[in-house]
Amino acid sequence: MEIERKQADLIDHYVKQASSLNGSSLSVLILEATSNPSLFAFSEILAVPTVAQLEGTGQSAYLNLLRLFAYGTWSDYKSNAGSFLQLVPEQVLKLKQLTVLSMAEIGKVLPYDQLMQQLDVTNVRELEDFLINDCMYAGIVRGKLDQLRRCFELQFAAGRDLRPGQIGNMIDVLSSWLATSDNLLLSIQEKIKWADTMSELDKKQKTEYEVKVDEAKKLLSLKQGDTDFRGNEELFSESGGVMDYEEDRVRPKRRRHPMH
């Protein structure tokens, strides 16, 4: 997809830039990255050694800001605003977009009331405008706004950066899914084998049936022929029936007497 290609290009760009910078120059780069309207993944930038070296320095606030955009939400920022740098409007919008993506990880049906609370939005019209213009048009989510049920039904949502503690849980989930898939595959294979066995049994029974039918036909034909032969034999040996030609030829002729 175009958005994924653009995302990958941006990540590659910022990673290369961060690898060649340090100190205040890195701070400027982090502000630029967290304000970019097309960038929604930051873990690769966090993994750059020069960025990690900001920990414990005078520029550590920028490292915390980058972590907020990688793993945090708008509520995290609001509840700890004093611990972070003041956000510019572009960053506020970005963090709210990322908040929707975090909520999408929990459920595929997002109630309006919950969205308004998490995004600090006061009315439904403002919320729907945000979801349409800043989320769906941006390509980070797809879904349907259900005004009757007052919820947003998600069909797709871009994934966020994985927190360090999430990797182990994801491995466990994937391992469980793999085990379930293996068991399902084994069950399917057993059913296929059973179906093949039943098919072969049906073929064998059908063949045996056809052989028996052929034998019955042959037997019936033989019996019919024997019956026809015996019927003709009885016909010619019957008293008063047709006399044998040789018997008639040798039989004495009756003498005719002249009429008086």
Automatic annotation (TrEMBL):
GO cellular component, one term: COP9 signalosome
Span of domain PCI: 1-159
Keywords on record: Signalosome
Pfam families: CSN7_HB_subdom, PCI
Keyword Chloroplast: no
Top-rank taxon, per record: Eukaryota
Record family assignment: Belongs to the CSN7/EIF3M family. CSN7 subfamily.
Record-given protein name: PCI domain-containing protein
Species name: Kalanchoe fedtschenkoi
Lineage: Eukaryota, Viridiplantae, Streptophyta, Embryophyta, Tracheophyta
